Every structure is written in structure tokens, then in C-alpha cells.
């Protein structure tokens, strides 16, 4: 396992952590049971195969 040679300052650590943010999933329109729903792009195949119930 890699071990850092030097200690990272508190300011640098906090600056790095503060820049990380989770992105909202991009929603795409999908036609399910005659109605259009907005679903995350990565879940479209699961909705099409019927593995997930249509969102309300």
C-alpha cells in the first residue's frame, strides 16, 4: 500500500475535500406503459426490461 512521504497540510486536505461534490443524475425521458417518465440514464435498461416498477 502506498504511504505518503510527507504530511499533507490541513488547508490542502480541506481544500481538496471541499471541491468534491456529487453530480445530480441526468434524467432522460422514457415511455413506460403509455406515460412519459424522467429516469436516470443508467437505469433505462432496467426500466425497459421491467426489473424496476415505473416511477410515480
From TrEMBL:
It comes from the Bacteria. InterPro entries: Ribosomal_bL32, Ribosomal_zn-bd. Keywords: Ligase, Ribonucleoprotein, Ribosomal protein. GO terms for cellular component: ribosome. One of its GO terms (molecular function) is ligase activity. Belongs to the bacterial ribosomal protein bL32 family. This is Large ribosomal subunit protein bL32.
